[in-house]
């Protein structure tokens, strides 16, 4: 799998609950439509391990078969629609991409 990983924090005027509801609701409706999307995992962050890790609300991992498939998704109208919905929300995010390796499957 090739993943797009997004770590996000809500806009200052939103509550954590509002942000998670939006992310898993209205925003998810657009994200599900991304061409080539194989899996999507979302983690609601409810606590930080240490002070330097505070201030984040959730993590999304969007999985594709290849870097090329992710590139096509990022060039799609569906991606443009999802970005337009975010607009000038003023939250923070970190977005990174890379190959997944399962190290433990328990």
Topology:
Blueprint: E1 2-9, H1 16-24, H2 26-31, E2 39-44, E3 58-64, H3 67-74, H4 77-86, E4 92-99
Antiparallel strand pairs: 1-3, 1-4, 2-3
Keywords:
Alpha-Beta Plaits; about 30% helix; globular; Ethyl tert-butyl ether degradation protein EthD; alpha+beta; EthD_dom; oxidoreductase activity; 4-stranded antiparallel sheet; single chain; about 110 residues; 4 helices; about 25% strand; Dimeric_a/b-barrel
Helix content: 25-40%
**Assigned CATH class:** Alpha Beta
Please give the CATH architecture.
2-Layer Sandwich
Provide the CATH topology: Alpha-Beta Plaits
Give a short overview.
With 106 residues, the chain is of the alpha+beta class. The chain is built from four helices and four strands, in the order βααββααβ. Helix content is 31%, strand content 27%.
Describe what this molecule looks like in 3D.
This protein is of the alpha+beta class and 106 residues long. The chain has one domain: Alpha-Beta Plaits (2-Layer Sandwich). It has 4 helices and 4 strands. The longest helix has 10 residues, at 77-86. The model has no long low-confidence stretch (mean pLDDT 96). InterPro entries: Dimeric_a/b-barrel, EthD_dom. It holds the Pfam family EthD. Residues 12-84 form the EthD domain. This is Ethyl tert-butyl ether degradation protein EthD.
